[in-house]
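Input chain follows. Return structure tokens only.
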Amino acid sequence: MQQENLVKIQNITPSQVASITDFTFLKTEDAYFRNKLGAVNVYKTAFQEYLSELKELSNNSKKPYAVCVRHNEVTHTRHFLDENNLSDIVIASVVGFPSTSYTRIKSYEVEWAIKHGATEIDMVFNYEQLKQGKIEDV
């Protein structure tokens, strides 16, 4: 049985791999704070490059299943996908990332993301609270 699975994996194409993966951009402006051109400007450029790369991948038969972005980029991403005939790509949004955030913040991020076009949510939960048995808080 393992040999059969190995053969199937060896025969998988890049297009098939892309069709089940998320193409992800989770950086924030903070990631660029030391740049002399300004963190916000560099961030915006990096995000545009990400979207351009998405379009290029999609044009080369390597369209991903989903794009995964922060809640504040969902609207921009939705417009980009619609304008480039890529609206069949799912928008996933992360909430409480990279830290676990407070429940109210997560709730806000989820509501915002869904309202603006996300159809999947990736949520980080508070593992320390889980270990302490604080299930309601998690």
